[in-house]
Amino acid sequence: MIKKTINQNDKYVKILKNFVEPDFIFSNNPIKRIKKTEKNRENVNQTKNSLLDNLKKKINSIENCNLKNNSKNLILGNGNVDSPLMLVGEAPGRMEDDTGLLFQGEVGDLLNKMLLAINIKREDIYLTYSVNFRPPEDRKPTAQEVKRYSTFLKEHISIINPEILFILGSTAMEAITGTNNKVTNERGRWKEIILKNKTFPFMISFNPSYLIRFPENKKFSWDDLKKLKKKIQELNIKI
Q1: Phi and psi dihedrals of 177, rounded to 5?
Q2: In a domain, 54, yes or no
Q3: DSSP string, 113-164
Q4: CATH classification at residue 104
Q5: How far, in Å, CA of 96 to CA of 107, rounded?
Q6: Which residue in 163, 128, 164 sits closest to 149, CA to CA?
Q7: Is 76 helix (H, G, I), strand (E, B) or coil?
Q8: Structural domain span for residue 154
């Protein structure tokens, strides 16, 4: 079969241009497909943001919740929705509830240092909590509360669709795994969770607020961070 070279002045080109067909591109220059890729990424992010808005409405519509009734703000998540790394903390505290932002104050400062230690900027990843409202007096969420919000958390993970999950603290561990073992016994090992037919690798580590109270465990957290960095390199992930 002989292929005819397309020219802008070709009569067949002029005929084709009379049809409304967005996929026809007539040019003597190479097509810049990168722009198309960027456009697709924008569309994906718009879809994610729309799904996140719907998820927030679902969470805000729950009734008879002691966490919600005693909080000022619903804390969903923030950061790069397109990031391959999603970090899940435990629950908002007073500063987070006041500001509507995640990981504030001393806890946020420590988290930033932990991430920068493995050359990751906080704004380049996506962060959320296992429960979306501040527990009264910053108490630990009950097993019933964790289970209730774990449904939303798992939907949240599926929306962001990361390559790796980093789970901080016992409440986040319970929300993901359904177990309430000690973080000390579960941290530092790669595990997997399957959500909507996709497998997500995750590692459990200590929450920054715990490390502030028990700084002697920072050495174990550093071991976990190094394993996280190694996993990122193995999977050839760009953050």
Answers
A1: -100, -20
A2: no
A3: HHHHTTT--GGGSEEEESSSSPPGGGPPPPHHHHHHHHHHHHHHHHHH--SE
A4: 3.40.470.10
A5: 10
A6: 128
A7: coil
A8: 75-234
Number of folded domains that form the chain: 1
Q: Is residue 224 part of a domain?
A: yes
Supply 165's token pair.
């999950």
Give the bridge partners for 223, in sequence order: none
pTM over 0.85: no
Is position 130 within any domain? Answer: yes
pLDDT per residue as tens digits for the range 85-101: 999 999 999 999 999 99
For residue 232, the surrounding DSSP H or E stretch is helix 218-234
> Does the pLDDT of residue 46 top 90, yes or no?
no
Our CA dihedral for 29, 30, 33, 39, rounded to 10 degrees, sits at: 0
List, in order, residues 6 or more apart from 154 with CB less than 8 Å away: 195
